[in-house]
Amino acid sequence: MAAKRNDVAELPGLDVSGPAESKLGPTGRPLREFPVPAPLNGHGPARIIALCNQKGGVGKTTTTINLGASLAAYGRRVLAIDFDPQGALSAGLGINTHDLPTIYDLLLGSEKDTASTIVETSTPGLDIIPANIDLSAAEVHLVNEVAREMILARVLRQVSDRYDVILIDCQPSLGLLTVNALTAAHGVLIPLECEFFALRGVALLIETIDKVRDRLNPAITLDGILPTMFDPRTLHSREVLERVVETFDDRVLESVIGRTVKFPDASVAGTPITTFAPEHAAAEAYRRVARELVARGAVA
């Protein structure tokens, strides 16, 4: 799917005048366009990406939904894992979890077949394993299990060959569920709200990732930090983004997600913004994130 317009050009207050080579993106780096990914010859095995941030309300679920839909539009087979007891990912994709087997049943072993819990969404190529409030009891039940940090990895191993990418929408904490997600993952994507208090917790999250790498999952990498809820009209937002880039350099994605009321509207409709408002700058922003992750090698 070819990009129809440049999402950065629509951000108010951003100077993109002049020759293409001199344009700067919102991160202060030269503005690049990432190519549309080439079609795949086959599918699988999946690369597993955990979307983590212990702070709530930074755009993890929104990113999981819209990144998954964007990758699916580029021909990738995507499985989204709702790993938050609030079940926002399931609701945001229009899935009613009543009487459905969920990720909680897989973790506790009451459901043995991972494939039986997968639900197709209205977006072709995007499936989900849903969750609901039952998942809040999982940490209590798993605390005495042998190799409790690796249960999710065993669950996903059954179906990883069917998909190109598996996205895990983590809860806003650094507890046992998040450690399970990090242990199962090949990479981590950190959605980061362009706000000071969101920035403060990133160092702690990266420290947790380092501990998981050292003790449980040596292969895990940081795929990137995705700035979200960016409003270039505010000095605070611009300063936070500048500080993030100064601190983490090229680990910060060039793509940036702006603040817009279209995201909650799409969530109410139970559909990705790429379907709800495909021509909107926010939809193109997530398609750009998908293209950048493919270009970085985080996704096939």
- Structural class, by secondary structure, is alpha/beta
Quaternary structure state of the chains depicted: single chain
CA radius of gyration is: 18 Å
Strand order within the widest beta sheet: 3-4-2-5-1-6-7
- Tell me about the largest β-sheet: 7 strands, mixed
Shape: globular
User: How far is it from the N-terminal to the C-terminal residue, by CA?
Assistant: 16 Å
Tell me what the structure shows.
36% of the residues lie in helices and 13% in strands. The protein is of the alpha/beta class and 300 residues long. The chain has a 7-stranded mixed beta sheet, with helices on both faces. The radius of gyration is 18 Å and the shape is globular. The protein starts with 46 loop residues before the first strand and ends with a helix. Residues 1-20 have low confidence and may be disordered.
List descriptors.
seven-stranded mixed sheet, globular, 300 residues, alpha/beta, 7 strands
Gist of the model:
With about 300 residues, this protein is α/β, with parallel strands linked by helices. The protein has helices at about 60-75, 90, 105-110, 140, 150-155, 175-185, 195-200, 200-215, 235-250, 260-270, 275, 280-295, and strands spanning about 45-50, 80-85, 120, 125-130, 165-170, 185-195, 220-230.
